[in-house]
Design goal:
The complex is a heterodimer of chains A (about 230) and B (about 240). Chain A is an all-alpha fold. Chain A is about 60% helix and about 0% strand. Chain A contains ten helices and two strands, in the order αααααααααββα. Classes of the chains: A mainly alpha (about 230), B alpha+beta (about 240).
Chain lengths: ~230, ~240
């Protein structure tokens, strides 16, 4: 019965209906996986010391989460309830290994930059969270949109954190020295005037503090997020 | 048709089918991508060897560059004597497996290069960082003491911290450092804390600046250089006598 109801609903709904568009846009603000659901913090701390790895990581997570959602949503009525977590893990692990192998064969340099963190996508709480909370009860197309939205929402925070950490910690953006050269003895730009990089920004705790500041800023603009006591 | 997804038999069958499907998919992917990955790895190895003698080549031209600069590759035994017909040629010796053998059975690869008429000796390095293996190549000038160039790489060090050993600002410090002290005792090159050290640019103290926040990786680099080069001392000493005698 439930299956039939879902099918008729899909027929009536256009691909990019308002409800479906919200699946993609919600995770950017009202339902951001990092700042609102507080998931995926671990990798947000680990890969955000520089912008380039943060962006490639965001793309890889988006690919895995979108296709993981599609696969799980397509077989959601066949998955035995008691082993559903294991099934989700197997699907995610297979996708992550595929992404890793393909990167290694055709984008060798990027795969080297991300090193261990590609494998660690498996343990990203956002992915399991979306599979369990969304893909198990929705159609593949809606699950795909939900995956893309959550991957992008995760990536957005990663890029913001990486921007501040790379700028303040290394004085560069995408590896380009935007604040001048910091080489001792031949400083230019800000460094010539006595500015120093904040080495603390390179350490994981500062990423947590930056995420905290982002949450603060977001909540001061978005009243919906504030709990009423 | 509608199955009862709560039955044990169904659960077991589903799990079995899933594992077989995923297994086949991943094996096919691994086998079909293997040649591309191996080619990438070989080219990267050549690129790293060339980088040790400060030759930067694009991945497309690396095979030609390797033939142009590398004159000979030898495998030494643990006494420093060249092995006539080694089981595995020097280029294909994988230090990850080689270092697990007892020392007497290990082959020590060494590459001889010629750049602008000058001979250089390139020795592969292999050791352990924080999360996994680190490796690299070090090239010595004809005095078999002064470092001409060095390159490091790693499997899984933290980006922004330990992974910085691949960056030029770290590797460039090793240039012109000496692996033997003034008395001719082997010492290696240590990566140590203390960027404010006024002696940091001295080239005769056998020390370079370590990476902040990556102490274990830096210590791994120090140990790797010391432990690998130590094995080549008999060969280097004999070669030095021959060159000067």
């Amino acid at each position: 019965m439930a299956e039939a109801a879902v099918k008729t609903e899909v027929k009536r709904e256009p691909l990019f209906s308002r409800r479906n568009r919200r699946l993609v846009t919600d995770p950017f603000n009202d339902n951001n996986p990092i700042t609102v659901q507080v998931l995926g913090i671990c990798s947000a701390l680990a890969v955000t010391a520089k912008l380039v790895p943060a962006i490639v990581m965001a793309l890889s997570v988006t690919v895995v989460i979108a296709f993981g959602n599609v696969v799980i949503a397509s077989i959601r009525n066949l998955i035995p309830n008691r082993i559903r977590i294991i099934v989700q893990l197997v699907v995610v692990a297979a996708l992550v290994i595929l992404v890793d192998q393909v990167l290694r064969a055709f984008a060798y340099d990027i795969s080297k930059q991300l090193s261990v963190f590609v494998g660690l996508i498996i343990t990203n709480c956002i992915i399991m969270g979306r599979l369990e909370a969304f893909a198990l009860g929705n159609t593949p197309w809606r699950s795909f949109l939900d995956g893309v939205g959550n991957g992008a929402g995760y990536g957005l925070i990663l890029v913001i954190v990486a921007f501040f950490r790379e700028l303040l910690g290394s004085g560069t953006l995408f590896g380009f020295p935007v604040l001048g050269k910091s080489t001792p003895g031949q400083e230019t730009g800000l460094f010539a005037m006595g500015y120093h990089n904040n080495g603390f920004m390179l350490l994981a705790p500062m990423a947590l503090i930056v995420v905290g500041v982002i949450i603060w800023v977001q909540r001061s603009f978005n009243g919906k997020l504030i709990e009423k006591n | 048709m509608r199955w009862d997804t709560n039955k044990n038999a169904y659960t077991l069958t589903f799990a079995a089918v899933l594992v077989v499907v995923v297994g086949i998919l991943l094996s096919v992917a691994a086998v079909s991508l293997k040649p591309f990955q191996r080619k990438n790895a070989d080219l990267e190895k050549m690129q790293n060897i060339l980088r040790a003698i400060r030759v930067a080549v694009d991945r497309r031209d690396v095979a030609a560059g390797y033939r142009a600069y590398i004159e000979a590759a030898q495998v030494l035994d643990d006494k420093g004597k060249p092995i006539e017909h080694p089981e595995t040629p020097a280029f294909h010796i994988d230090l990850a497996t080689e270092t697990k053998k007892p020392l007497a059975e290990q082959g020590l690869p060494i590459f001889k290069a010629k750049k602008q008429g000058q001979p250089y000796y390139i020795i592969p390095l292999y050791g352990h960082g924080l999360w996994g293996p680190i490796w690299g190549y070090i090239s010595l000038e004809s005095d078999l003491n002064t470092v001409y160039g060095i390159t490091f790489d790693h499997a899984s060090e933290t980006p922004g911290l330990g992974a910085e050993i691949t960056q030029p600002y770290f590797q460039d410090q090793y240039e012109s450092e000496k692996i033997f002290d003034d008395q001719g005792h082997f010492r290696g090159i240590a990566a140590v804390k203390g960027y404010s050290d006024p002696d940091r640019d001295k080239k005769d103290d056998g020390r370079v600046d370590a990476i902040s926040g990556a102490t274990i990786t830096s210590n791994g680099v120090t140990a790797m250089i010391r432990d690998r080069l130590r094995l080549y001392i008999p060969y280097l000493k004999e070669l030095k006598m021959r060159n000067h005698g």
